[in-house]
Write a structure and sequence with these properties.
globular; 250 residues; 8 helices
Length: 250
């Protein structure tokens, strides 16, 4: 089953309580709580309280969106540990990380090897807590193309490394579909938005595209399709996009 959710950093300027209110009013089921915006790294008490509030609203924590980036920390294990503290207290099933800070076309072999070593380190740390690690499928990282992303998964070679997926603007629809299909069991959640020609638009306008993408997703796993990048950042558009998402998942 694919359940409807929300990425909390869709509204960075709103409080966690406001995010909860919006999610409930839109009939959503889960929230990916964003680091720095709504949950601070290393704040176990705050994360635990947010988990309690989320459950009390009848929602689930779908994940923890950290901003830990491979190959950017002098002490990656120490930096990741702070995010892991919050993810554990939040009862997050996964912790999102980023595959470096440069486009794959600019990443040499040494960079990729270093990134893979760090990825194995944090995957081991998270596995000890029963938490999955998920790469953000994103431009200007090692997951900016299908080829680079899957090569990096092989280079890391760790059973606790997964991916989130979003329709990266730089890729064609066919490339997006093929990458999504190839992810298979490595796919966790989907970030749902519609950006024709790189400009935000109502999700209702992109339902045909999303039906095409979902044809590549295995129906055998439970996951969330989470709204993000709402046009004009308004609550009204979120409500409309949530209605379209419900129709999509029908």
């Amino acid at each position: 089953m694919i359940r409807p959710g929300l990425v909390s950093v869709t509204f960075r300027d709103k409080s966690a309580d406001e995010i909860l209110r919006l999610a409930v009013s839109c009939g959503l089921s889960g929230i990916d709580w964003g680091e720095n915006a709504h949950v601070m790294p290393g704040d176990a008490a705050g994360a635990a309280e947010l988990y309690r509030k989320t459950i009390a609203c009848g929602l689930q924590v779908s994940g923890y969106g950290s901003y830990f980036r491979l190959c950017t920390q002098e002490s990656p294990g120490e930096a990741f540990a702070a995010s892991l503290v919050s993810a554990e207290a939040l009862h997050a099933p996964y912790l999102r990380i980023w595959a470096g800070n440069k486009p794959s076309a600019e990443a040499d072999r040494d960079f990729r090897l270093k990134a893979a070593r760090e990825a194995r380190l944090v995957c081991d740390m998270a596995a000890d807590k029963g938490i999955k690690v998920a790469l953000e499928w994103h431009k200007n990282t090692l997951t900016d193309t299908n080829e680079s992303a899957f090569a990096f998964l092989e280079e890391t070679d760790h059973p606790n490394l997964y991916c989130l997926w979003q329709p990266t603007v730089a890729l064609s629809m066919e490339e997006r579909y093929n990458g999504l299909k190839q992810l298979g069991d490595r796919l966790l959640n989907l970030h749902v938005y519609y950006w024709p020609d790189g400009a935000r638009a109502p999700l209702a306008d992109g339902l045909a595209d999303w039906r095409y993408y979902l044809g590549a997703v295995s129906p055998e796993q439970d996951r969330y399709a989470e709204l993000e990048f709402v046009k004009d950042n308004t609550e009204e558009q979120l409500a409309l996009d949530a209605k379209a998402l419900h129709e999509l998942l029908g």
